[in-house]
Each structure stands twice: as structure tokens, then as C-alpha cells.
Design goal:
heterodimer, A: 682 residues, alpha+beta, Four Helix Bundle (Hemerythrin (Met), subunit A), Alpha-Beta Plaits, 6-stranded mixed β-sheet, 5-stranded mixed β-sheet, 22 strands, elongated, B: 145 residues, mainly beta, OB fold (Dihydrolipoamide Acetyltransferase, E2P), 10 strands, 46% strand, globular
């Protein structure tokens, strides 16, 4: 290596790792927000967040992506202080941190697309810095104590500072409890009295009333926690507090902040089971392995043919045939192993769904509780990428259209918070079933029918048919979140037409709707050229094509043909069956007219395109009418033996709802050669 | 066995399929040709996201081919895990014909149709032929693979 540093390799690693940490960051931010709504502290999540951002910052610095370093640094600083404050994030922090995460995500995406990375958003960075200052003022000292978090969180900034400074100055801090009872009240011990008594021997930092389970010891269901600082002897304090000396709990300073800063990004990776024993692999490498395996399968096929030829000559090939069969099994197993390596976990795929729901709830003013239960289901990466927009679409629709505003829900006797669940499980037959369910208002069949200009559907199936009509909208006004509510047709296109799956719906007015997607666990996706020949459209995988060139069929050289024609008749079209040839870089390449091979009628033009493929090192050119374009297509194998034909590897849907044939021109070339050698058609 | 049967026509002849074998009926406006496939294969159609081969019943029964019309239907059959469509001139009615109304076909018909006609029934002076779906779409042959 000349520069001693492979930056492209590093960059790919950075992108992959950053994406992992960003996903974790989003998940943690959302759970912090959820916990904050219930008043629960979240020290663990804050710490994990800190580590994720610390790692992102470090990695970004290593590959020199300054804007990411800057944003991550600003976020990390906020989190460090929150961690010192026992996981208390200042007001508005989650919002800003989510924005920061988004800013980093955008820059990582730009990197992965090899685009320029925009500078750090200055407003965001300064807002984060401002947050830090207000946080610093609010939490006072940047240290924590051994006080239980539920008490620590009840202390104001000044009280925390008072306590921390007191302990730092060498005073003893105690936590003690006072439980009022009728007996104690009769003896003159109420909380005011205790407070006054303690005030004579100690500094009362805070008195926190707490509700406790009502028992004989605490008949009022109430207790008081008192936090005090003192120089007085323990016995005196206990006496003043009307407790036994052993009931005093010492409060000490916590060392956590320092430990946290020392903890590098690496030691947490070990704790995370997801990362244990895993290697990140680019999908392209797996595809490459699969492609080489396909070549191996072709070789095995040829071996089988050679064996059959031997058998035909009377050779004993039993041992060879056994090895061949064993070899075939091993190849199938190997293929299955490679396919398994392409699987991604569905729960990881759905990691972003909570973020979407959160954003939508905010935008629409509806509150929604999302539950995702994906279990251990896995899906081929290619399927996952294709189905994800459909899932997001259904979730969006659920929040945006299905869930009613809180007031309407309350009036209908439902909980104000809407429930959305996403569940999935593996069905038999290589299928995954995904259900997106809401407890909203249900699909308005009357409205849908009116808009579609169709009679009122009598079943959920018929209603779904209407809903998935292209361009149908049930909303007149444009909402910013789901556009016009269009897109159920897109969901159907992806799940049904493209992936060959199913889409089903159950809806009950006022009770909610469930959409169920059944999709194959794996599919074959290829980058393909589409072209016209004899008035029909075909596609051919780009990987099999060596070149596409112009060919003038009036200027080709025709070879003589000494063979008898297969059915004893001459080719009416050209008079002879000799093969056209073209010159290509000093090589004579046979030109096969695909329209003739397929028995199609081509427009009478001699200027065509030729698709050049190579079989066993020999080039062949297939003349076609016109190239149409290039796109990724999902190839669905032809399963029925009636349509299993050499040269046709499957079908795809180019978007017109009709099957388009996917050609294997190399196999077609082989078949034609085999026929011309034996002199018989099929 | 259910008594329900799907009635379809080729020319003026009536054929029946047991409704239990029929998955659905779809209108037909052409299929994607499969070059190299057997002559009775009209092509491939996509029905509810599923790619289904369509056989031309006219070709199987030795009638001349015709252009599809508005009445043309694909009767989608399900047999032993296979899903295959049959192209017919029209398919409109579902008839209830009890098993007792069927008679075995004359031996010469059995022979000529290679067992595709399972039974015959009379209705309103018309002869209805009950077709063996599995024979028409052809049993799956054990293949080299």
C-alpha cells in the first residue's frame, strides 16, 4: 500500500458501525422519553447513549468526518452531564438529541452515497451547548450521590449542590425515615416536630414525603425521607430523629462520572450479545459467492451430462453417479447456507418504526402506544429492503388516518392513547406473516366506495380491493404526514405484485383495522436489462451480458450450411439456415435472431441491437429489436413443469401487472448449439 | 364430493369442472407467451400476484384457436399443489348436479380423450361432459431433477 491506509475500507466499516450505534441511539432516546413521561429515571439508557455517541465521535474522528465529530461531541457533552445528574436530562433534551441523531444519520447516508458531507448545523450545536449550560445550572454540582435515584430526582439543584458540597467538605450526610403513627402523634412526634428536632443537630437538606403501602407500622400509607448534613454524633442525630442509630443510612458521593469517561467504546461491545461472534459482510460479497456457486451448479450439470453420455456407451458409471448425487446435495446445502447468511432479523428491521410513530404522534397531536413483537423471525436482506416502505406506510396510515384524536377516543369510551401493534411470525412454506393492527376508527367503507365510485363493498376483501386501487384517496385535505392517504396501491404493488406475497385486511367500524402481509422469506433480485423483441418485452440479467452493440443485419456475413434442415424444409425467411456473423474486435461472433428463435414477428428493420453473451469462452450475439432500459427486478422462478423451458429462468413484473420473461441467454445459446449438433429441434 | 360444478363452453360444447377443483375464474385478455413451451400452453398470467400458466383448452381438445373475446375466461384449477389456468370460450354458470345424475362416458370417448372425460350428465337436452382436471393439466412427471 502506498499510503499505508485504506480509507475506502475504513469508511465502509465506519458507516456500518455508525448505523448500528445510531439505531441504538434512537431506541434509547425513545425509551428515555417514554420513561420520562412516567417520571421514571433512566440512568442506564443515558449511559448507553453516552457510549454510542462517544463511539461515533471517536470513529468519525478516525476517518476525519469533522461535522459528525462536532455534532456527536455536542450531544455527548449533554449526556455526560445528564449521567452525572443520575440520568436526569434537561427539558427539551430528547428533542434536540433526536435532531442531532438525525443530523448524524444524514451525514452518514451522504457518506455511503459518496456525496459531500454538509457541515454541522450550527443552530443545533449551539442549542445543545445552551442545553448544557442550563443543565449545569439546574443540576448544580456535576456529581451524584449514593442516594436512591427516586430521592435524588426529588432534590432541587440547590439542594443537590448543598448535599454534594457538604459531603465534599467532610460533613456526614444521612438519610433517615419518619413514619407517622397515631402512637407517635400522641407522643408529640409529627413531621414538623421531627424536623425541628433534627434542625438543632443537623442541616435538613430535604424532606421528601413518600407514599408507602399501608401496614400496621405505617397505617397512614405515608412516610417521610429526610436528607440531612451534620457534624453531630450519630447517637444525637438518631435521638433527634426518633430512630435507632442503625436506621440511619449514610449518603456518599458516587464515583460514576470518572468511571464513565474511562470506559472506552470497546469494552461495551463485549457485553452486547448482538455483536458477539459476528462479522459484518457487504451483501455484494454474498451475492458474489452465490454467483460463483451458480457456476459450480452449471459445472455439476455438465458433469451429469458427461456421465449420462458414458452410461449410453455402456460404461459402468454407478460409482460416479453416486458421487454426483452426493455432490448435488452438498451444493444445495451450500446454497442454503449462503442464503441464510443473507438473512436479517425482523426486529432490527423494525427498529425505526417507533421513531416514525413518535414523529407522527407529535405532528398529528394523537398519542399512540406502539408494540412491536417480531420474535426471532428473519428475512432475506433484499426482501427486507423492499417490504420496509410498505410497513412504514401501513404504520403511518394507522396513526394518521385510523387513530382518532384523543377527545374523540375518550367520547367513544376508548383509552385516549391509541394502540398500534406490529407482530410477525414465520409461517410454513417459506413465508413470513406481518400484521399491523390499530384500535382506531376502522376503514370507512361508505367513504371509500363513494370515492371509488363503486357500490358499497360487502366484504373486507372487496373493500381492500377498492382501497388498493391506484390513486384512490379517502382524505380530501392533504396531510403533511401521509400525503393524501394514497399509497395502499403501492403497498399492494410491493407485497403482492413485486414480492409475490399476499395482502389481507380485517376492519371493524369503531374498533380498528388489521393489515396482514404474507411475504416470501427470500427472493432473487437481479440487475437486468429490458428489451423489445418481436413486439414483446423481455429482461436479461446484466451480469450475463458482455456487451450490447449495434448490428446491421443486412451487412452481416452469412456462413454456408451443409447440414440438412431439421424438418426437411428450408427456412422460408432467409432461404438458408446458415448463421449470420459479425466482426467484433477481430473475433467472428455468430448472430442469433431472437425473434426467429422464439417464433415472433419483428418489425422489418435490419438495424438492431445485439446482446453479446459468452458461453464456455465462445461469444454469441442475440439480435433484438430495441433496448428499453436497466433496472433491478425480482425474479420469480417458474415452478410448473409446463413452463419450465431452457433459456427462461423465470418471470418478473415490470410494473404493468403482467409477467415478463427473464431470459437466460447463455442457457438458450447452449440449447441452440445442442440442437444444431444433433440436428433436431427440441 | 360437492355437487357444485362450473359450466364452461368451447364453441357449442358444454364442459363441467368439479367446483372443488376450481380456485377462481378470471377474465382473459392475453398472456405472456412462453417460447419453447408445449403447444397447449397459451402463456403466463398474473392473478393476484401469482404467476399462473394458462393452457388453451381448445388446443387440448383439438379445436381451432380463436382470438380472446370479452367472454373468454381462465378457470384456475388447483391440483396436487399446482395452480394452472384453463382458457375457455366462456364460463358463467355454477350448476348443482348430484352424483347420481352422472353416467360413465362411452368407452370410445374414454379412449379417444385419454380419460379426460370422467362422466357425462344430461341437462335440458344437452349433454354435459365432466372433465378430469388432473388429466387435463397433466400429472406431474417424476423429472430428472
Amino acid at each position: 500500500m502506498s499510503n499505508g491506509f485504506d480509507s475506502a475500507h475504513f469508511l465502509a466499516g465506519f458507516i456500518a458501525e455508525a448505523e448500528d450505534h445510531l439505531a441504538a441511539t434512537n431506541a434509547n432516546l425513545l425509551s428515555i422519553e417514554a420513561a420520562a413521561a412516567k417520571g421514571q429515571p433512566t440512568p442506564r439508557q443515558v449511559r448507553e447513549l453516552f457510549r454510542s455517541l462517544h463511539t461515533i465521535k471517536g470513529l468519525a474522528a478516525m476517518v476525519g468526518i469533522e461535522p459528525i465529530v462536532e455534532v456527536a461531541h455536542a450531544m455527548e457533552a449533554v449526556l455526560r452531564e445528564a449521567d452525572r445528574a443520575a440520568g436526569q436530562l434537561p427539558r427539551g433534551a430528547v428533542e434536540l438529541l433526536l435532531k442531532g441523531t438525525r443530523a448524524i444519520e444524514q451525514r452518514v447516508q451522504a457518506l455511503s452515497k459518496r456525496k459531500a458531507v454538509s457541515p454541522a448545523p450550527a443552530a443545533l450545536v449551539s442549542a445543545l451547548a445552551a442545553l448544557r449550560q442550563s443543565n449545569a445550572q439546574a443540576s448544580g454540582a456535576a456529581a451524584s450521590t449514593s442516594l436512591p435515584p427516586e430521592l435524588w430526582s426529588r432534590l432541587g439543584a440547590a439542594e443537590r449542590e448543598q448535599l454534594v458540597q457538604g459531603i465534599s467538605a467532610g460533613r456526614r450526610a444521612w438519610l433517615l425515615r419518619f413514619v407517622p403513627t397515631p402512637a407517635r402523634a400522641a407522643a408529640g412526634f409529627n413531621i414538623t416536630a421531627i424536623r425541628e428536632r433534627l434542625g438543632t443537630v443537623a442541616e435538613v437538606v430535604k424532606v421528601v414525603p413518600q407514599s408507602v403501602a399501608a401496614t400496621d407500622d405505617a397505617p397512614g400509607g405515608l412516610a417521610f425521607a429526610l436528607v440531612i448534613l451534620t457534624d453531630a454524633a450519630d447517637a444525637l442525630v438518631a435521638e433527634a430523629g426518633a430512630v435507632a442509630p442503625e436506621e440511619l443510612t449514610a449518603i456518599s458521593l458516587e464515583e460514576t462520572p470518572a468511571a464513565l469517561e474511562e470506559g472506552g467504546p470497546d469494552d461495551d461491545a463485549v457485553d452486547d450479545p448482538r455483536h458477539r461472534g459476528t462479522v459484518r459482510v457487504e451483501v455484494a460479497r454474498l451475492d458474489d459467492a452465490l454467483e460463483k456457486l451458480t457456476a459450480l451448479v452449471v459445472t455439476q450439470f455438465r458433469l451429469g451430462r458427461a456421465t449420462a453420455a458414458l452410461r449410453a456407451q455402456g460404461t459402468d458409471v454407478r460409482a460416479l453417479a453416486q458421487v454426483l448425487a452426493e455432490n448435488g446435495r452438498q451444493l444445495r446445502d451450500l446454497r442454503a447456507s449462503i442464503m441464510r447468511a443473507r438473512m436479517v432479523s425482523v426486529s432490527e428491521l423494525l427498529e425505526r418504526v417507533p421513531l416514525v410513530v413518535r414523529g407522527l404522534s407529535q405532528a398529528t397531536g394523537k398519542s399512540a402506544h406502539l408494540e412491536v413483537a417480531a420474535g426471532k423471525a428473519e428475512l432475506d436482506k433484499a426482501v427486507a429492503e423492499r417490504i420496509f416502505p410498505a410497513i412504514i406506510h401501513l404504520v403511518r396510515n394507522a396513526v394518521d388516518h385510523a387513530l382518532e384524536p384523543p377527545a374523540e377516543r375518550a367520547a367513544a369510551g376508548k383509552p385516549e392513547v391509541g394502540a398500534i401493534t406490529v407482530t410477525c411470525f414465520e409461517r410454513g412454506g417459506n413465508q413470513l406473516e406481518l400484521t399491523i393492527r390499530d384500535d382506531g376508527r376502522g376503514v370507512d367503507a361508505v367513504g371509500v366506495a363513494r370515492r371509488a365510485g363503486a357500490p358499497l363493498p360487502t366484504s373486507d376483501e372487496a373493500l381492500l380491493d377498492l382501497l388498493t386501487r391506484p390513486g384512490l384517496s379517502t382524505k380530501t385535505e392533504v396531510t403533511t404526514t401521509s400525503g393524501r392517504g394514497v399509497g395502499m396501491d403501492v403497498v399492494k404493488r410491493i407485497a403482492v405484485d413485486e414480492l409475490g406475497g399476499e395482502l389481507a385486511m380485517r376492519t371493524t367500524p369503531g374498533r380498528g383495522t388489521a393489515f396482514t402481509l404474507r411475504i416470501p422469506l427470500s427472493i432473487t433480485i437481479v440487475d437486468a436489462f429490458s428489451f423489445l423483441c418481436g413486439g414483446e418485452t423481455f429482461v436479461v440479467p446484466v451480469a450475463t451480458v458482455e456487451e450490447i452493440q449495434e448490428v446491421d443485419l443486412d451487412r452481416t456475413v452469412r456462413g454456408p450450411d451443409r447440414r440438412r434442415t431439421p424438418r426437411g424444409e428450408s427456412d422460408r425467411r432467409r432461404g438458408t439456415r446458415g448463421t449470420d456473423m459479425i466482426q467484433r474486435r477481430g473475433e467472428a461472433v455468430p448472430v442469433l435472431r431472437l425473434d426467429e428463435i422464439f417464433g415472433l414477428a419483428s418489425p422489418d428493420t435490419s438495424h438492431r441491437k445485439a446482446i453479446v453473451v459468452r458461453r464456455n469462452g465462445e461469444p454469441y450475439a442475440f439480435a433484438v429489436d430495441r433496448m428499453l432500459g436497466q433496472q433491478e427486478v425480482v425474479v420469480r422462478p417458474l415452478e410448473d413443469r409446463l413452463v419450465r423451458v431452457p433459456g427462461i429462468s423465470g418471470t418478473t413484473d415490470l410494473g404493468d401487472g403482467r409477467p415478463t420473461l427473464v431470459l437466460d441467454l447463455i442457457a438458450l445459446g447452449s440449447k441452440l448449439m445442442a440442437e444444431s449438433v444433433t440436428g433436431a429441434g427440441a | 364430493m360437492s355437487d357444485l360444478h362450473v359450466l364452461c363452453k368451447i364453441g357449442e360444447t358444454d364442459y363441467l369442472f368439479s367446483a372443488a377443483d376450481v380456485l377462481q375464474m378470471e377474465s382473459y385478455s392475453g398472456a405472456t407467451r412462453v417460447p419453447g413451451a408445449a403447444t397447449q400452453v397459451a402463456g403466463l398470467v398474473q392473478i393476484r400476484g401469482r404467476v399462473v400458466p394458462v393452457l388453451d383448452l381448445r388446443v387440448i381438445f383439438g379445436f381451432p384457436k380463436i382470438e380472446p373475446t370479452l367472454n373468454s375466461r381462465v378457470v384456475v384449477l388447483q391440483q396436487e399443489g399446482r395452480t394452472v389456468g384453463l382458457l375457455v370460450d366462456s364460463a358463467r354458470e355454477v350448476l348443482k348436479i348430484p352424483a347420481a345424475d352422472f353416467q360413465p362416458p362411452p368407452p370410445v370417448v374414454v379412449q379417444q380423450t385419454e380419460g379426460m372425460v370422467k362422466a357425462v350428465a344430461q341437462r335440458n337436452n344437452r349433454l354435459l361432459m365432466l372433465i378430469d382436471a388432473s388429466k387435463v393439466i397433466g400429472e406431474e412427471q417424476p423429472h430428472g431433477e
